[in-house]
Amino acid sequence: MAHHTAEIVADNYTLEPARWAKGRNVLAFLALVSWVGLAAGFAMDREQFFRSYLIGFLYPLTIVLGATFFVMVQYLSGSVWSMTVRRIMENVMSSMPAAALLFLPIAFGIHDIFPWSHEGHVKDPSKASYLSPQFFTIRAIVYLVLWNMFALMIYRASTKQDTTRSIDQTRTALKWSAPGVFFLFITASLAAFDWIMSLDPHWYSTMFGVYILAGGALAFMALLTLLAIGFRRAGILKNSITMEHYHDLGKWMFALTAFYTYIAFCQYMLIWYANIPEEVVFYKHRVEGSWLWVSIFMIFARFFIPFFTLLARSAKRNLTILTVVAIWILFVQFVDLFWLVKPTWAHHGVSIHWMDVASLVATTSVFGLVFWSRFKTHAMVPVGDLRFEQGLKFENA
């Protein structure tokens, strides 16, 4: 154990300026090219722009919401295993301000995206007052303000602790995390109803919010795994994030795969069993034409492939397997959102547009720039947390 500790001390917890600048330049280039492309796409086809942009916006947002949830849970549970990866979690969480900026096109494109905003649309009387452009925008502002408030206050407490090394900052983060989990769950569920479920305003599912949150949490854990492995291959934190930590990341991806599948199956089973026309139409659109093959693909891609790949203990301790599975999960998360949104306009088969990809790159690169900027001024791990040394020595049972 003494030799292990010596290796840990050798790690540098600050990112070299040259490496930071290189990462920033790559992300900035991707943002520039993709946003120029989207601007041209908007000029050519305004309606397609907004429909593609919605998917591109939702993808990184669901991941950041997953990060926010997990950071809060780490504080509430007093977790030790995550000490060496928690700052990476917090940096993903602290990219939340990008969501407020990137929501603006959605706000301006309500009439191009949501059918209930059209004057001639026949509205369900019970939803008419809720589904109005004004109330929709007010709710979105509330969601974004709350998410940013909780994320940035927790992040501020954590980074302040790097210098104070006081337990007071842990208590502050804990005080924000306790109500934060509650408000995050409620507001993220409502946002899922507003921004995705209301695309078909007659359809409804009480489990839809949990479905979206589960997918975002799984995608976040995959991203965290990829970032940790990427840093390791670059010679960063290679002694601090040990195989024990990677093992736990693998366990989380495995567990969340099972949880997501459970929620998705329960939603399908309840809708199938009730056989209510307003509910069944959701799945009806997703078995028409080539959408049927996407639906079948999702069964294997979301559950069977990652679940059985990560089932063995040895797989969770194999960095190559973890890398492949994490990339696969992130890819399937985009396919899932595509499958949720696109059939709204393409009922009879899959329709892929180049702006779907451009929007994904544009929004993700902006979130990435905010995330990456945090490494310039703060340590890559929570060095001031009193449990940090214990986290370095963490071992699985």
Summarize the structure.
The protein is mainly alpha-helical and 397 residues long. Helices cover 75% and strands 0% of the residues.
Number of helices: 17
Describe the global form: globular
Structural class: mainly alpha
Count of individual domains = 1
Biggest sheet record = none
Tell me how many strands there are. Answer: 0
Ranges where pLDDT stays below 50 over 5 or more residues in a row are 1-8
- Work out the helicity level: over 70%
Strand content: under 5%
- How far the N terminus sits from the C terminus, by CA atoms, comes to 16 Å
Q: If you average the pLDDT, what whole number results?
A: 94
Please write the string of helix (H) and strand (E) elements: HHHHHHHHHHHHHHHHH
Query: How many whole angstroms does the radius of gyration measure?
Result: 21 Å
Folded structure, characterized:
- The relative contact order is 0.17.
- The chain is mainly α and 397 residues long.
- The chain has helices at residues 2-9, 17-44, 46-77, 83-93, 97-102, 104-108, 110-113, 133-164, 167-195, 208-233, 243-274, 277-285, 291-309, 313-316, 319-341, 354-377, 388-392.
- Helix 10 (208-233) runs antiparallel to helix 11.
- The longest helix has 32 residues, at 46-77.
- The protein starts with a helix and ends in a 5-residue tail after the last helix.
- The chain has one domain (16-383).
- The chain is 75% helix and 0% strand.
- It is globular and about 60 Å long.
Lay out the secondary structure.
Layout: H1 2-9, H2 17-44, H3 46-77, H4 83-93, H5 97-102, H6 104-108, H7 110-113, H8 133-164, H9 167-195, H10 208-233, H11 243-274, H12 277-285, H13 291-309, H14 313-316, H15 319-341, H16 354-377, H17 388-392
